[in-house]
Design a protein that fits this description.
12 strands; Aminopeptidase; 2 domains; 12-stranded mixed β-sheet; 302 residues
Length: 302
């Protein structure tokens, strides 16, 4: 039996995402914080005893919870998610517009099978790309893999940082204390669209995430100096997911790359399998050895 409700405490949100390595994004805590930040339409957590899809019905039609630019990966939950999607679509009102975005291969296949079973067009469209770095078992092997040019650049930038600030140190800050406030300050001091992204309203979302398990602000400092770069990220035993970052534009010593290289080094030391740069095809990600993870979408009407 299919049930639709708005109860975030449902046990079905503990089911396994059909797409692996999707970080916090299909999880209850992230989705609930996102919904509280940007409720739009009617929340329809749609479930059976063995599957769940987090949906919203509103002016834009039927879609996942939350804006696509804030959610790097989407994934239905549970072994029977394709059947659940098929039943949802087959019983929806005629002419209802639907849009399912940000789906890795495994999730796209489940949605495709559900749409096809409901008699709807089921050809996925590539919409975005994420960048994922498979991690070796040592930082030395990582440096070998990136090649001599990039290896030289990482070492040169760390040396320049050391000359300007002293030995680099990464400090982990959890919650919404001084570390979080420093991340916000750096972000707002950035130029262009980045500087205007973290509005007071957006800050409320980041603050809600910062108070959840797994999230942290990482601050790059020199010896006895103030932080000059920061990252906002989520991590578990298998992966590190770099959600956002900022650095002091007036600082010397390439603090952004130094911080990323040190986060990669620390993720390797902790035994993570993957360092995920998430959405975006910025060249620096691939210079550091990341590989593309294609993301797909479906759009149409019932």
């Amino acid at each position: 039996m299919v049930i639709q409700h708005g109860d975030w405490s449902t046990p079905a949100l503990d089911l396994r995402p059909v797409a692996p390595d999707t970080g916090p994004f299909p999880r209850r805590d992230f989705l609930e914080a996102l919904w509280n930040y940007a409720p739009a339409g009617d929340l329809c957590l749609t479930e059976t005893s063995s599957a769940l899809v987090p949906l919203v019905v509103g002016e834009a039609g039927l879609h996942w919870v939350g804006p696509p630019d804030l959610v790097d990966y989407r994934s239905p939950l549970g072994d029977d998610a394709a059947d659940l999607i098929a039943e949802v679509m087959a019983t929806s009102a005629s002419g209802l517009h639907y849009r399912f975005d940000s789906l890795p291969d495994e999730a796209a296949d489940v949605v495709r099978r559900g749409l096809a079973k409901a008699g709807l067009p089921a050809e996925p469209v590539r919409v975005e790309v994420a960048a994922r770095l498979p991690l070796p078992n040592s930082f030395e092997v990582f440096l070998e893999r990136v090649g001599s040019k990039e290896r030289h650049e990482i070492r040169r930038k760390r040396r320049r940082f050391r000359e300007a600030h002293g030995d680099p140190v990464v400090i982990t800050s959890r919650g919404t204390g001084a570390g979080f406030e420093r991340f916000v300050e750096m972000h707002r001091a950035s130029g262009g669209g980045k500087g205007s992204f973290l509005t007071p309203r957006m800050q409320t979302l980041f603050a809600a995430l910062a108070d959840q398990d797994g999230w942290a602000v990482e601050l790059l400092c020199g010896e006895e100096t103030e932080p000059v770069a920061s990252a906002f990220a989520w991590a578990d035993a298998d992966g590190y997911y770099l959600y956002n970052s900022a650095f002091d534009r007036l600082s010397t010593g390439s603090p952004g790359i130094v911080l990323v290289s040190m986060l990669i080094e620390r993720a390797i030391q902790r035994g993570c399998r993957v360092f995920d740069f998430l959405k975006g095809d910025e060249p620096y990600k691939f210079r550091l050895g990341a590989v593309s993870r294609l993301l797909y979408g479906f759009e149409g009407s019932t």
